[in-house]
Amino acid sequence: MSEIITNAIREYSPKRILLLFSGGHDSLCSTHYSATFLKSLGLDFTVYHGNTGIGIRQSRDYVRRTCMEQDWKLYEGYAGDAYEKLVSKYGFPGPQSHKFMYITLKERPLKKYITHFCKSSPYARENILLITGIRKSESRIRMGYRDFIKKEGSAVWLSPIFYWTESDSEIYMRQNELLRNPVKDKICISGECLCGAFAGNEEWAEIRHSFPEAALEIERLHKIAIQNGKPWGWASSPTKYYKHNPQGQMKMFMCIGCEEKKQQRRETISNINTI
Q1: Among 51, 58, 68, 75, which is most exposed with the fewest C-beta within 10 angstroms?
Q2: Angle at CA 142, nearest 5°, toward 138 and 143?
């Protein structure tokens, strides 16, 4: 893995090196390994955490605590109230909106940091090395990662643990006595982003049970969405909602006359049974 990092530095001569730490255990392993190696070379780096504005507080606390204990310089890119504005206007996102959620909540704050804080000027043709904890077998959600390295404009994306398995990450954490994320251990996600695009009902139940503070925030946003005519819930989508509640469809009801006849039949049947 050290050779992968060394070759990337040699080939792209990055102006800055960022270690992307989401709070997940894979990104913890990648960040810890890379930080240890870069320190041995005397190279400077910054740990970057994306604060989406709709994450679980305990996960952010975990990232901050880990960086403090490891003596890593941390920068948080913050998406502000972008998610609330999106939910207010469009309702909760479904799977088809995942890419847009990623761009708005994660990509834009990161690009802003790279452009205005990492490069010598916004238009400078300088490379920034982004070291991540993406694994090839981790998830179908990680679209576009077919190799451990790729370049997009000024950003050089590198994953030194690209070919690791989940077991490899667990072994590395135990060997290095790394602090575990309590959110990840409780609900199996790092919890830095609860946009809900790929979430399910079981995930919502786990969040309500283990992290009621985060659930209350989602419920607050749901009320705003309902007020703006977007009534489907978190971990749902307009497609699912309108499939079962077509727009313009009148609710079915029984007229008074039919209800009276129905009651008369009940009484008749009851009288017969008592004879």
Answers
A1: 68
A2: 135
